[in-house]
Amino acid sequence: MRWPAQATQWMGELEAAQSVAGGELATTATRLAGLANVATTNPGPVGQAAQGVIATGRGALASQLGEAPACLAVTPFQSGIGQGRGHQRYLSAPNLVQLLAGKLVAAPAPIAELYALPILFLATRYDRFAEGLARFNALMPVPDLVRAERRARHLAQLEVEKWEMPRAEPLPRWQSLPLERCTITKAARQSMAGQLAVLESYAADSSPMADLAALATRKSAQQQGRNQQLADLQALLEGGTPDDTIRARLLGPGNPAQLRAELLQLDPPGHEWVLCAGVVLVGSRQGLSFVQELVGL
After folding, report:
1. CB 286, CB 136: distance < 8 Å
2. What is the pLDDT of residues 274-291, one digit of tens each?
3. In the chain, which end has fewer C-beta atoms inside a 10 angstrom radius, N or C?
């Protein structure tokens, strides 16, 4: 094994440009030192005008999204939870409510008045169960619910594909050589790409006025992009249709025992919902406000 000198001989052409770049860096440092007592800057009015809005926005983010509520998820695939044999596991809605209520007693109580937000996911088939969990996990991926969604989707797919006879292609098969995973090619690519990136930074050199104009253009485009991103997110969640397979209720205020009693007093869904999962969030009213509105309460 040896270094491919012929394939990489183009790297020698970079030495002249690298030598010129080193000299320019030394000259630039000298010029910048001479401008230290000559050039001045004048901040614009935007920073002062945005101070109040920034403080208000940071405070709202800290109060609504900065407090992480305690979270507990119950799925039929957890050990000792679901009923059934083998990979097929079931958990009816009333039994799910009893399990959530029992777990509420041991909920952490960092504050005096707690609120609880139980969310139930109801289904009768594995494919519908996976779809209901996927809609919630797309916005709030709770790890236990993500695992339950993945397993339910695989079980539903197994029911469809277990009657299909697979076909084997003739061997051997053509395939691509994974150069990106080879040790020598990966290291050589990174090293040579780094050399080119350094020279590309000099090739893109421009005047300070052009840099300032480009910076202003980028900041304007960035602001418009952020505004459009938020508008698209709001439009995605506006006008949502009611979903009977997802039930949510806000409980509280009270201590864990009072929250458990309030949950048991509710009229739960019936045993016809044989495949259910649930998650309960416990925290302050302000900490649960974002998720509360997210689920339509």
Report:
1. no
2. 999 999 988 888 888 888
3. N
User: Is position 121 within any domain?
Assistant: yes
Q: Is the dihedral of CA 43, 45, 51, 53 positive or negative?
A: negative
The answer to whether the predicted template modeling score (pTM) of the entire model surpasses 0.70 is: no
Q: What pLDDT shows up at residue 64?
A: 63
Higher pLDDT, 48 or 190: 190
State the first-to-last Cα distance of the chain, in angstroms, to the nearest integer: 67
| Containing structural domain, residue 79 | 67-159+244-294
Q: Which of 220, 216, 293 is closest to 250 using CA atoms? A: 293
Q: In a 10 Å sphere around its CB, with 0-12 CB exposed, 13-18 middle and 19+ buried, how is residue 99 labelled?
A: middle
Task: Give the pLDDT band of residue 8 (cuts 50, 70, 90).
Answer: low
DSSP 221-239: HHHHHHHHHHHHHHHHHTT
Q: Assess contact for 251 and 117: CB atoms under 8 A.
A: yes
Percent share of the chain, pLDDT over 90: 18
Higher pLDDT, 111 or 162: 162
- Nearest Cα to 216, choosing from 95, 46, 38? 46
Assigned domain for 26 exists: no
**Does some domain include residue 269?**
yes
Decide if 168 is inside a domain.
no
Please enumerate, as own/partner, the contacts of 24-31 that have beta carbons within 8 Å and a separation of 24 or more.
24/202
Nearest residue to 254 (alpha-carbon basis) of 67, 114, 159: 114
